[in-house]
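REQUEST FORM: STRUCTURE PREDICTION
Request ID: SP-0412
Submitted by: Lab K.M.
Chain count: 1
Length (residues): 155
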Amino acid sequence: MHALKPLPWFAATLFACAGHTFAASSMAADEAAIRAQSVSWAKAYNGGDAVGVAAQYADDALLMPPGAPGVRGRAAIQAYFTKDIAASHAAGVVFNLDPHTDVGVAGNTGWESGTYTATIKGTVVESGKFLSVSRKQGGKWHYLRDTWNVDAPPK
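STATUS: Completed
RESULT:
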């Protein structure tokens, strides 16, 4: 009879470890999805696809670009990026994200921060950092808040 006493503890430990493993793998998958979201954003931006960029944002998102008022809502964000992308493409700008970002997840909220450069013909013309907060809905991550700023002091 005494030999069976550790069994419930052992079973509980196994279930706890299995739950932790599931949570850790789920969190890793969410972190990877948030990073992939940024890669998709940059690909759409560099491809001249304002609709694809705007699709990365929640309907109630707030975009906070440097030197400009905040832009609220997916339709307004698409209008902002339609102009911004056109100007960037006319100047020959290519947007590059450093793939080494910091990402965190808590439930259905995630964040990512990192750095970027903008180049023209391979020459860096701007460098800066960004911070995005995302929300997971329907199994997909969308930006809820997005902001960035340049490293150079204002002119």
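NOTES: The chain is about 40% helix and 35% strand.
Reviewed by: T.R.
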